[in-house]
Amino acid sequence: MLAAFVLSLAPAQAQTLTERIEQCGACHGADGNSTMEKIPSLAGQPEFFILNQLILIREGVRPIEAMQDAVKNLKDGDIVAIAAHFNKLIAKPAGDPPDPALVARGSQLSTKLRCTSCHGPTLTGDQQMPRLAKQRIDYMSAALKEYRDNKRKGADTAMTAVIYGLNDADIDAIAHYAASR
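Below the sequence we write its predicted structure tokens.
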């Protein structure tokens, strides 16, 4: 953890690609599987999704304060390499284990909302659509609530429309279902 903190203080232009990836791993997990509350896992995310998100964050379209310093000086080639690195890592279940009753309810809601039509039959994502499978429950719940409440800046408005009107319990159930996949 101390090494990650020291790396975050180093000037971005002096960092090697390995150091940049280690800096990402300080929050998103050295193996791309986050152990930090409400921080998404990046392992196994579609390469284009990661690339797109990093550019949106770097350009200020998707403002995430905690990410600003880490991405502000990233060159396009670095972003491509970081996306490729995390895409190749194996996604593992993260955080608390899913609740079986919520998984069952989330499965019904996922079918009703047609989550697989965009995120794929196993919720592993594709191109610009993120992997939901094995994602942290706390992160998924928070992200979905931001979509629903139209508080997620720089996000796909189609997702907001899909979950509009869902209550917190339904969102939590979907998060448990996705994490169980």
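Residues 2-88 form a domain with the Cytochrome Bc1 Complex; Chain D, domain 2 fold (CATH 1.10.760.10).
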